[in-house]
Amino acid sequence: MEQAITGEARQESLAGEVVWNVGVRLLGFAASKCMLLVMTAVVARYLGTENFGKYSFVLTYLVFFQILTDPGVSALLLQKLCDTAKLERARLLGSTLLLRFALSCLAVGASVGLLLILGYPADIQKAALIGSLGFLVGRSDVYTVVFQAHLKQQYIAYTELLEQLVATGLIVLVVIFDLGFLAVFVATAAGSGARFFVSWLLSGKFTKTEFRVDLTGWRDLLRSGLPIAVGAVFGTVVANLDLLTVQKMMGNDAAGYYGAAKRLISPWGLIPGTYVSVVYPILYKLFVSGDRDRFALAYEKSFRYMLMVIVPVATGVSLTAKSIMRIIYGEQFLESSMILAIIVWSQVFLFVKLVNDYLLITIGKQRASARVAGMSALTNILLNIVLCHKYGAEGAAISCVTSYSLFLPLQCTFSEGREYSLAILRQAVKPAVAASAMALFVAFVLRFQLLASLVAGPLIYAGVLVAVGGVGTSDLLALSKVILGRSGSEIRG
Q1: How many whole angstroms separate alpha carbon 345 and alpha carbon 339?
Q2: Are 181 and 55 a contacting pair, CB within 8 Å?
């Protein structure tokens, strides 16, 4: 009897720790991404469709070179920080920063050099140069790993919010003084630099940074991270080839419409990244400790919590896309409405992909993830060629969603991680039922009215989710501890 009570208490403690970290991270995430949403709307209205198309193209283009700055190093660094003694952490952190800085220099040169070779206009070349400088001043992600390893999600939230405050403030000045297209990229890079500096200051509470060149360590990191990097390349193709294809085939105006929808959902697509940053350190520690029951419990509960958030968000955005575009961007971007309604679902499947990726990294099966990503990327390339030519920008959106949706079925074809992939399907059923009920109510009762949908939609979703057993007593208890302000450490105590 005592063992049963102890086991139940441990499950409640673990659920509370997961919910606390996810909750704190989501609150900070929501605040910073609301700021990013404001910034995107201001930039779009200021630049207009053609220049916003250029802006979106440059940002998307640079994402491909961002892979060079982190070829799987961050995920491996997190593992090593969890396993390494304090003195060695300082050296590991400093060595990794130097490696990332060297890779960032390579990314800057490669991104600008390729545009020169391809003969792109001078304004796009200059914008790419300024934007790529963010690779050098924006290495706060290394310190983000430190906060993840210590389960201090609030520091990540603080620095994210600071980055958006600085960038948004500077962009407002750009608009007021009409400083032009290139000044927008300067403002964004300045925000990244501010976040890096503050992250460095805050990280001193947990570990120092001892800079040293460790060629052997660099080689080991790069070799171990290669399968992750290959998967990231394929994932980047799936996530970003659509906009590049639209710009190439239909011009800057079409890219502006597509970019408006894509930029709107991209910040909220970081919800999967939030899940990973919170849960991965917990999963890794449970896995290496051999506690497979708690490992499975943490994985399934945390995944379910995040799925309960992202599915209704995607449903609501899809149903009210036209109203959202009108409010945020104005009448000139209404052509983006259908694109938004389609492409928002890519974020749900992106979430599933990231969960699988990091589970496979945790159990040491990175190569399986790379194989699946490769097959999905090949599908994406073929679909973009066919659908974009036939259906325009909407075809590119369909291609993106379809490619992401293939990750889970493809993952089930491999023995590595098949058990976890099937668990994802089981966890998705009840949120999907609740979201379907919400969609029917919004469509046939509320007639897609935005304000009424924002109020009644979540209530319908929550009510149906509780009715079908998607939320249990332990979930509500864990959530109440977050609301009361109890941290994971307090819960464990």
Answers
A1: 11
A2: yes
> In which residue are the tokens 């976040």 written?
195
CB 158 within 8 A of CB 28: yes
Give pLDDT tens digits for 97-114: 888 888 889 999 999 999
Cβ atoms of 256 and 50 closer than 8 Å? yes
Tokens of 248: 């190439």
Nearest Cα neighbor of 398 from 379, 383, 377 is 383
d(CA 380, CA 382): 5
pLDDT tens for 355-407 read 777 777 666 666 777 777 788 888 888 888 888 888 888 999 999 889 888 87
Q: Give the residue from 59, 263, 267 showing the smallest Cα distance to 181.
A: 59
CA distance 153 to 143: 12
Please name which of 424, 267, 284, 416 lies closest in space to residue 353, comparing C-alpha atoms.
Answer: 424
**Could you give the CA distance from residue 366 to residue 231 in angstroms, rounded to a whole number?**
8
283 Ramachandran zone, left/alpha/beta (phi>0; psi -120 to 50): alpha
Q: Spell out the alpha helix ranges (H) of 320-472.
A: 321-329, 337-343, 346-362, 366-391, 393-405, 407-412, 418-444, 450-467
Which residue, 67, 44, 72, is CA-closest to 357? 72
Total-model pTM: 0.72
Look up residue 481 and give its amino acid. K
CB atoms within 10 A of CB 350: 24
Q: In this structure, which amino acid lies at residue 246?
A: V
Phi, psi of 447 (to 5 degrees): 55, 40
- Residue 123 CB partners (closer than 8 Å, separation 6+): 54, 181, 182
In the predicted model, what is the mean pLDDT of residues 106-130? 93
Q: Tokens 């700021």, residue?
A: 35
Higher confidence at residue 7 or residue 493?
Answer: 7
Q: How many domains does the chain have?
A: 1
Instruction: Quote the domain boundaries for residue 278.
Output: 2-492
Q: What mean pLDDT, rounded, does the chain reach?
A: 79
Tokens encoding 123: 């304004």
- Tokens 């890794």 belong to which residue? 284
Report how far residue 237's alpha carbon sits from residue 70's, in angstroms, rounded to the nearest whole number: 16
H or E stretch at 97: helix 86-118
Which amino acid would we find at residue 462? A
486 contact partners, CB below 8 Å, separation of at least 6: 16, 20
8 Å CB contact between 488 and 20: yes
